[in-house]
Amino acid sequence: MKDDRPERTRSERFLKERKRTRHFFNLTAVIYPLIERHLVPRYEDALARLDLPPALTVLDVATGSGILAAAFARRGHPVTGLDFSRRLLKRARKKFPAIDFGAFDLVELAKMPAKSYGIVSCGYLLHGLSPEFRATILKNIARIARHYVVVFDYCCDGGWFVRLIERMEGPHYPRFIATGREAEFAGAGLRIERSFRTSPFGDAWLCRPE
Ligand SMILES: C[S@@+](CC[C@H](N)C(=O)[O-])C[C@H]1O[C@@H](n2cnc3c(N)ncnc32)[C@H](O)[C@@H]1O
Questions:
Q1: CB within 6 Å of ligand 1 — which residues?
Q2: What is the DSSP string of 129-177?
Q3: Ligand 1 atom having least distance to the Cα of 14
Q4: pLDDT tens, residue by residue, 32-43
Q5: Which of 46, 74, 77, 103 is most exposed, with minimal Cβ within 10 Å?
């Protein structure tokens, strides 16, 4: 269905959402070592299973402290990581000085040229976005990727601790885990080629832009 609301109102809604998200991630950067301990082995195992050609360039959007970007880099991919959390980017640059990290707000993805990276990846970004902003981001990711889009996120309920953290981040997680990804990805022009469980509550999706 066509969205007839004025473009300005839409950007205002996105702006409010992004301000809150940036504040949350700057504030919670201190607990990232804990999150990294859980995610790093999962990212590494999943990328080993996917075994994508290392010559493909990677754009890791919402890179946070850079752990997914670094997992791609260790497999030989040239990688760029983008995020808007100053604190997480500082951590990423300190931990992985050889990777190119940039301060970037994802609304700006709309300005990036089509098919400019072999792979576009995002780890645990989507569940935190409103359905409307998520659809916009996914369409841009699909447009920028030449060969693959790799997504990591929740597949199902992660228990009380995850629910608590995600409630602090924002209101979108419960609806995100209650809906399937296939229709949403298809709506953005992405076809799921493979998907598999990476943890009791996380999935990896390998998609092809159509
Ligand atoms: C849950 S963290 C995941 C970080 C990283 N991908 C990982 O797997 O560890 C979500 C990230 O999305 C970033 N993010 C959310 N909205 C964004 C936006 N509009 N522009 C740039 N980064 C954004 C946050 O700053 C945060 O680093």
A1: 18, 21, 25, 39, 62-65, 67-68, 83-85, 88, 105-106, 123-125
A2: S-HHHHHHHHHHHHHHEEEEEEEEEE-S---HHHHHHHHHH-S-HHHHH
A3: 19
A4: 999 999 999 999
A5: 103
Under DSSP, is residue 115 helix (H, G, I), strand (E, B) or coil? Answer: coil
Question: What's the rounded Cα separation, in Å, for the pair 47 and 150?
Answer: 9
Residue in 140, 173, 3 with CA at minimum distance from that of residue 62:
140
With tokens 């995850």, the residue in question is 162
Please give the distance of CA 24 from its chain centroid, rounded to a whole number: 16
Distance, in Å, from the CA atom of 43 to the CA atom of 61, rounded to the nearest integer, reads 15
In order of 117, 144, 154, the CA distances from 22 in angstroms are 25, 23, 20
Q: How far is the CA of 122 from the centre of ligand 1 (A)?
A: 8
pLDDT in tens, 172-191: 999 999 999 999 999 999 99
Q: Which ligand 1 atom is the nearest neighbour of the CA of 68?
A: 8
Q: Choose which CATH entry (3.10.25.10, 3.40.50.150, 2.30.30.140, 3.40.1740.10) describes domain 46-209.
A: 3.40.50.150
Three-state secondary structure call for residue 100: strand
Task: Please state, in angstroms and rounded to a whole number, the distance separating the CA atoms of residues 132 and 160.
Answer: 26
Mean pLDDT over each residue of the chain, to the nearest integer: 94
**Domain edges within the chain:** 46-209
